[in-house]
Amino acid sequence: MDLITLTLRKNHLWSAASVLGLAGLTYFTNRYMNNLALTNNKTYFKSIEVIPGVPNLNMLDVINPSGHIIYIFWNGDMGSTYLLIDLLLQDKIIQPIYIERYTIIKELEKDKLENIAKHNDTLKDRKGQYKNKNNADFLKSISKLKKSQEYEMKQIEMLRLMILGQYPEFRKNLLPTTYITTIAKDLEYTSKFYNALQESKPVSSYDGIELIEQIVRFLKYYDKLKASSSRIILGCNKDYKNRDLLLNLIKKKIITIENIVTKDNITLDIPILDMDNKDVKFMAVEFFPNDIMKYFLQIEKEK
Fold it and tell me: Model-level pTM?
């Protein structure tokens, strides 16, 4: 029965993609159908972030009790870090979440990467340049994503040490970061998401916006949120490059911004969506200790 259902669903999706002519939808659908083994959320904690004896650690393996835990997608930038520290100062229990986008895409594109590696010599000319521009662009995007992920994860580790060093009392409320390596598939939602993007504004590139789709899909199948009312925070601000697309998704109710989570309706809280980078920096100066603020100012100089 499962095989028949899968076949029917696959034919249905491909027919829809063909009729609509959505290159992006066709691509994502194909990628998911070719990776049927990756069907569940998979996460891990880093042992270095687990502090023995902290009372709230018992919340790591249970369903969020009555929404006591606040979830925040934290990538180490100033916006999400400002929100995290602000909430900790309010004595909230915080569960940071980080999506390993490079890890996920590398697994989804495993066959393509192996094929490029296998034919590496024949794909390059005498100068070492790739003959196939598509392969070259693909490898560049993968390399860029890998470097970005490595930078963000190191920054998260550094900021955690700095925050706990400045505020030892936060040890009881700052839970170890949940690192996401695999996200459950939901072809129906993915189709709905990219259809909404095309209807709002046809785009040739989905660079970056797929993160929003991944966030909602992960939360929809995140067992710890079942039967609970949870606040889930996203740190996008007014200068977020895909802000217009995000607003269109909110308008079409592909995502919503109330603070209630149900199985079929994932909602997000985006507190700084109407603040630009200058506003966020101003607020951060008020909340950040000097050493953390200096750290961010140093990063700005290096960019």
Answer: 0.79
